[in-house]
Amino acid sequence: MNTSEAFRVGVCTWIFADQPLPVTAGRLAGLGFDGVELLGDLSLYSAKEAARVLDDHGLQPFSLTPENVDLSHPDDSVRRSAVDYFYRLIDFAAEFELKPLVSCHGIVGRIAPISSMVQENDLLIQSVHEICWRAKDNGLLVVYEVLNRYETHQIHTGAQALELIDKVGLDNLGVLLDAYHMNIEESVPSKTIEEVGSRLWLYHAADSNRRAIGLGHTDFARQLGALRAISYTGPIILECTAPGPNPFTSAKAEGWRSVLEEDLALSVAWLAAN
Length: 274
Fold this sequence. Notes:
Number of strands: 8
Number of domains: 1
CATH superfamily: Divalent-metal-dependent TIM barrel enzymes
Helix content: 40-55%
CATH class: Alpha Beta
Largest sheet: 8 strands, parallel, barrel
Strand order of the largest sheet: 1-2-3-4-5-6-7-8
């Protein structure tokens, strides 16, 4: 689906819930995608198995979605377990020939501090520094995903992500901006893209209702224009979900996978035309 000016386009595999990776890869290849953001559930496959499946379907491993662990928990044993998970995820990523970006973020579902924001922000900086240092030793890049206030209590804006990068102080840490989250937190998302600039290493796309591009009110034309203005060379990763209750699961009412694939096809068509 690539043209001279087109972005590479991928999909977060977690949105297919428990569908086996070979099935998901086959469906995505049939829809014309270039790669995936692979769910980092290390119980599902080895790196060699995942790489083989993706290669068999002509898909690249663009990035990894982490499990939902708590990098800023004031209980040191909880935080240590989270960092240790990322160490394993980094070891997993290092086995790929085409090295994926390793994504991390605040724990989804905890929207207030347990101790204090000051302490937990310091713990987050410490944890992300440890993760990036381990990744650097393995030749890997890390992106911090900016989420909205209804999912996590830390890092809601591009400006806050840049502050985190400055405090972590390592050059292998970049930013992941998500159109859906920016719709909630940023006054002008396209301006945020431009302000993050060369530190924007990954971009997620779903419309304002987390449906296909074009089914909500997000101004994707302006956001793509901003991506081109900063010479963004990374992929666009689609993270749509079918409509239904519980925003923390992709599995909705009967027939949700058909709705999801229709949304992905609509999004691919929109991106190809723009």
